[in-house]
Design brief:
By secondary structure, chain A is an alpha/beta fold. Chain A has four helices and seven strands. Helices cover 39% and strands 26% of the residues of chain A. In chain B, strands 1-2-3-5-4 form a five-stranded antiparallel beta sheet, covered by helices on one side. Chain B starts with 6 loop residues before the first strand and ends in a 9-residue tail after the last strand. The chains are: A alpha/beta (111), B alpha+beta (152). The complex binds adenosine-5'-diphosphate (ADP) (2 copies).
């Protein structure tokens, strides 16, 4: 499984050990995130995107689905998005729904 | 790319989502023959991935064993990609919308899918869909902007 | 490339020397999915260019309008390229020599051609040639060396 | 034509305005070089390879043919070869026949 989570300062930090978050793994990524909400210790999440060079609309869809499922409870922040990923968020206006911070540390510290 | 002659290479994969990366990386390599900037190359990659995945997921219902063809055509001023499948044709009504409306206060309306075609229509200069006989082809073109130093 | 599964993409060009670059650049892009170093990627590019050019020049006598196919197969530990033509088969005796003898003092013996196959045989880990029915295929493989950090 | 020549310090400097010296242009490159020998003002030549990222065996063949045609008269030096080109010369032992200098200036100055 290319997804991992650890706890830090009250947050669950989820990292993706893949350079591509695309349709071949988006559904298992969504399931992983849903599991975190249902069984995880915390609904305060930071997703570390630092290794992800490429994301497509299905990766974006998994993130939106997770945000919807949280239903306004807790927090889902994104960290360390690379240029192509940022470009995708801006293009699709998803930067309006997601808080994207340059580093995981800044994501944790951000209020 | 020093004359107006057109050059074409055809790529072919089997209909598995894991194979889309192969097309993406090959197209990235081909983009190095053009004057596209790194940001534009990323966008071309995104568009080709969206349309190849659509062919696999929608035309072939995610069934392995079918052919997806990507024809890459380089002209002095255009890069054209044609993605073809021999599966279920797309309803052309799908092409048209290229907006991304989003209301942060209305979670119920947030879309978890359906952004592939609007992305491609936003990023490409020209988009076309055609079904001829059994073959469905999605064609998209991007203008290759020339820097002034190339206009000698 | 995280499992032992094999991934394949087929490239196809028309038999014109100017088209070889398309294959070269697409293969360079695909090599970015491997652990090959920049020097090794350059060498893979050189090998694929030599064999594609041979197919065009020798199998098709530099005649346009014929198909050259390059199948790229990625395994965890091997990159395999198969270049196929449907033209004149190669005399297998051509494969064997991979030396580059040169006597600086004997200009008459300097070769102006004939280095393509020796180059490929020197740089690739495995080389094979097969004619089945009308299809002639030159297969070459390169081991993808894993850094120790990948061996976890 | 992607080949150009100019005179400098008794040398003819030939430059290649292509990133690839491959089979699609090698024969016209050979003809260009033979022309230089037959009609050129000088048989002291420096070939500026600085733009050439890729060379195949046919490019090498054009250079060997030129060196042979010169028959020991004059001089043919190569300048500014990029890594892949140097690698090709080393691999094929052609570094034994050709003098390759880091820059055109050094090629002119080299005795
Ligand atoms: N190649 C295709 N063949 C058949 N239908 C398609 C094809 N591509 C897209 N469609 C249809 O168009 C819809 C919108 O596609 P898209 O915007 O890429 O979003 P998504 O793939 O996330 O649903 C798809 O849900 C599908 O119904
Ligand atoms: N695909 C092929 N089909 C037929 N003959 C071939 C093919 N490839 C190579 N040959 C033969 O092998 C010879 C050596 O090839 P090579 O080492 O690449 O040198 P060159 O192409 O410079 O002659 C060629 O001259 C040709 O006679």
């Amino acid at each position: 499984m290319p997804f991992e989570s650890k706890s830090e300062a009250g947050y669950t930090i989820i990292s993706i050990d893949e350079t591509r978050l695309d349709a071949s793994i988006s559904e298992s990524f969504r399931v992983y995130l849903f599991d975190q909400i249902e069984n995880g210790s915390s609904n305060m999440m930071v997703i570390d995107l630092s290794l992800v060079r490429f994301m497509d609309s299905s990766g974006l869809g998994a993130l939106v689905a997770t945000l919807k499922k949280m239903g306004g409870e807790g927090s889902l922040k994104l960290a360390a998005a690379q240029p192509a990923v940022l470009d995708l968020f801006n293009l699709t206006s998803m930067d309006k729904l997601f808080t994207i911070l340059p580093t995981v540390t800044e994501a944790i510290e951000e209020k | 790319m020093t004359d107006e002659k057109s050059q074409t290479v055809r790529l072919e994969i089997d209909s598995e989502l894991a194979n889309t990366t192969l097309v993406a990386m090959a197209v990235r390599g081909l983009c190095a023959m053009t004057t596209l900037s790194p940001v534009e190359v990323n966008r071309v990659e995104l568009c080709v991935v969206e349309i190849v995945n659509n062919a696999i997921e929608h035309a072939y219902s995610s069934e392995k064993g079918h052919k997806v063809e990507v024809s890459v055509n380089l002209l002095k001023s255009y890069l054209t990609l044609t993605i073809s499948d021999w599966g279920k044709p797309m309803d052309e009504g799908q092409l048209g919308d290229k907006n991304f409306p989003v209301d942060a206060d209305d979670p119920a309306a947030w879309l978890c899918s359906g952004r592939g075609l609007p992305i491609v229509q936003s990023l490409m200069d020209k988009v076309e869909y055609q079904s001829v006989d059994d073959k469905n082809s999605f064609t998209m073109s991007k203008q290759i902007r020339w820097s002034s130093s190339d206009l000698i």
